[in-house]
Amino acid sequence: MLSPELGHYALALACVLAAVQGILPLIGAHRRDPRLMALAPGLAIGQLIGLVTAFACLIHAAVTDDFSVQNVAANSAVSKPLLYKITGVWGNHEGSILLWALILGLCGAAVAAFGRNLPSALRARVIAILGLVATGFELFCLTTSDPFARVWPAPMEGQGMNPLLQDPGLAFHPPILYTGYVGFAVPFAFAIAALIEGRVDAAWGRWVRPWAVAAWCFLTCGIAMGSWWSYYVLGWGGYWFWDPVENASLIPWLTGTALIHSAIVVEKREALKIWTVLLAIGTFSFSLSGTFLVRSGILNSVHAFANDPARGIFILGLLGLVIGGSLALFAYRAPSLTAGGLFAPLSREGALVLNNILLCSLCAVVLTGTMYPPFMSLLFDRTISVGKPFFDATTIPLALPLFIFMGFGPMLPWKRAQLWPVLNRLWLAAGLTVVAALVATRQLSGVLPVLCAAAAIWIMVSCATDIATRIQLFRVSLATSLHRLRGLPRAIIGTAIAHTGVAITVLGLAGMSQAQHRIVEVPTGSTQTLAGYEWTLTDVHSEPGPNYTAMVATIEIRRNGQLVTVLRPSKRSFNTQNQTTTDVAIHTNLLSDLYGVLGDSHGTEGHMTYVLRLHYNPLAPWMWLGALVMAFGGALSLSDRRVRVGAPRRAASSVQPASTQGNNA
Amino acid sequence: MNTSGSTTRRRLLMALPLAGAGAVGVAFWKMLSGMQHGSFNPHDINAPVLDRPVPDFNLPGLPPAEGFGTAELKALTAPVLVNFFASWCIPCVAEMPTLMAFKDQLPIWGVAYKDKPDNAAAFLRHSGNPFARLGNDPQGRAGMDWGLSGVPETFLIGPGGVIRWHTATPLSEDIIRGTILPLAARLKTP
């Protein structure tokens, strides 16, 4: 039933439907023809059905080991565990582009399903623009990266996939990351629709923000998963390498973060409208360009994808159409958008503008660092590598003020604020920050880690203070406070939680700056001391796995003679690909990770020595925990009543300023 | 809205993103077409450095060894092998015996890359020190100027401080005997 030909056909059908979805509703919206506009949701759902069918066919081919499909033959093998046969579908170029298209189709269908209360013309335009983008990607898939191409004669056995990808973390990392990338297509489509209509107002801000927040949550989780994967799979003990592929995900995250903040200003105050539209276009453009750079091979990276300049040219053309077209429309229409509400520099709007400036500067810095090497090589024919020292020296000075303003920004009232009442509420936070800094100087070495730790405490206590003030904790009875807490808009609690998540991540980073490691070459039975623990290599033996054989080391870790844990790091040799991977062993107590890696072995039978890498990583889990907390905060704000009940009608005068006003007297 | 001057300025401002994206797009196009014609290859770590003068840098020594910089390399009259290494790098550890075996046939200058001086010194005490000069690059800044992709990385510098040969793999006896020594011999005789 689910043959590759059916999949190919379904993909082609989806592509045609997407093209129709991209054209007819736009004409309909232009001519105010309700029949043409009403086609949009049906077409979007039809396109999704086609893509789901195509994807199901590819999964079916992978699960049934149909090696006559070239993609399956090149990336799968009979001996591969079932889970990885399924997840391996998106572990390669062709499959991942199909996944990308599928998620884009999901976005279109989601707007069709959840956008019922949008004005019909706006909804038709948003869905149409998503359709146009989808057409491009599906054409790309069909013409240069066909996942359903057959080979004849079919090989008996596939070549297997890169063993590094045989890992549960990586199996689910791409779908989540792509949902983040592609999710920003929806704010992008809203921005283009607004430019076509020539109208951006508070209602638009309110419609676009939930989509941006949802995409942001996925992107946050996706980046955290990627970082976690490189931490425990690559076995280098590091968590972020400023690798171009990592930066390609960080850049849209930074602009996306700026977007979800500036959209608040559009929603509440009808200001920053042009800027927000530009951010929405920019964020999706960066998402697209990131993929392009990775797939075309322009940037050097450890993240291997089969590179092919021909594909690169197709994607570049696609990018030119999408990004160039949208920016041309922006240049043409944005000057006629009317400027919005005025505000004093010291106000919630002012703080959010500052947030945007800092986030975009960070983005510019990361972008510069990432693009400098290929541009230098192209323009001046010089090789340059840009690494950690550059990024450390440039990002931290920009991030620190961001953290400081994060503390009291949410407390400032709209329009015009006075600093004193806000600072007056923050004396506790300031005091605790100083205490934290003093404690940190004793615990941490280096100025920046101390500053970061203090900034994290500042953010946490300020967030708690903000919530406590709003529910009048200790000023009224506890029951009343709890009642007020339940009555608080979820968006406000979500903000506090997301900001706390940032603080947790920053604490984790500060802790990780104190990580210690040793590389030793030892025989079994020897003991090393690292960070107050005694690490004893007691045994190394071999164990068979499903499609590999493993050398497993046993490392007993003691503290003051007491057994803390036993680590079993291993090295896996994969039979089909003649490749080995290291399997890191990590013991965590949530305050620190004990991390062991087994390296090469030397010597002869009976006199073997083994290379061991031993790491002590304080607060490491907090980095990813913080990201989850951030995403949870975002999700919580999505469940806000104002989002769930639906958007307001376009007479946007009823938009209330944030419910903070009562507390500022 | 106000005067025509401010409207024009506004229009120009709004066109800036397009202009920027256009410039980047043209650059990407050139890179891609360069990759297809083979004139631009970001993955080929050899191409851009070969037959070029060494970059500007100056490294302090790792006592007791003397450091070196561009001036010393440009003053060379005979070829020298420059080897970037680190005590934390397993292939560098593996490479050391080979370097030790050939240090008398060709001078080797080392750079301790992103390494703690104590660790580098202890490592060389343990493995033996093949380096006639030894620069210390704890932050890896000189490595950046050299366009290092990792350690170990080795450059053969000819007279006058010109990079004549380069590899990013650990040196083996075969590479030294088969490639480096013959090349060095040719460079010596003008």
Short précis:
With 665 residues, chain A is α+β, with helices and mostly antiparallel strands.
Can you tell me about this structure?
The complex is a heterodimer of chains A (665) and B (190). Helices cover 61% and strands 11% of the residues of chain A. Chain A is globular, with a radius of gyration of 27 Å. In chain A, helix 6 (93-114) packs across helix 8 (168-183). Chain A has four domains: 1-161, no CATH class; 162-398, no CATH class; 399-510, no CATH class; 516-621, no CATH class. Chain A is built from 22 helices and ten strands. Chain A has helices spanning 4-31, 34-37, 39-63, 70-75, 82-87, 93-114, 120-144, 168-183, 185-197, 202-232, 244-269, 273-296, 309-333, 348-379, 388-408, 419-425, 427-443, 447-470, 478-487, 490-512, 620-638, 641-644, and strands spanning 516-522, 527-530, 533-544, 548-559, 562-567, 570-574, 579-583, 585-588, 592-602, 609-618. The longest helix of chain A is centred in the middle third of the chain and has 32 residues, at 348-379. In chain A, strands 2, 3, 4, 5, 6 and 7 form a six-stranded antiparallel beta sheet that branches. Chain B is an alpha/beta fold. Chain B has two domains: 1-38; 52-188, Glutaredoxin, CATH 3.40.30.10. Helix content of chain B is 44%, strand content 18%. Chain B has helices spanning 4-37, 70-74, 90-102, 117-127, 141-145, 173-188, and strands spanning 52-53, 58-59, 68-69, 80-85, 108-113, 133-137, 153-158, 162-167. In chain B, a hairpin with a 3-residue loop joins strand 7 (153-158) and strand 8. The A-B interface holds A 274, 278, 281-282, 285, 292, 296-300, 309-310, 312-313, 316, 319-320, 323-324, 327-328, 330-331, 334-335, 373-375, 377-379, 381-389, 519, 521, 599-600, 611 and B 7, 10-11, 14-15, 17-18, 21-22, 25, 27-32, 34-36, 40, 42-43, 45, 48-49, 88, 90, 93, 139-141, 143-145, 147-149.
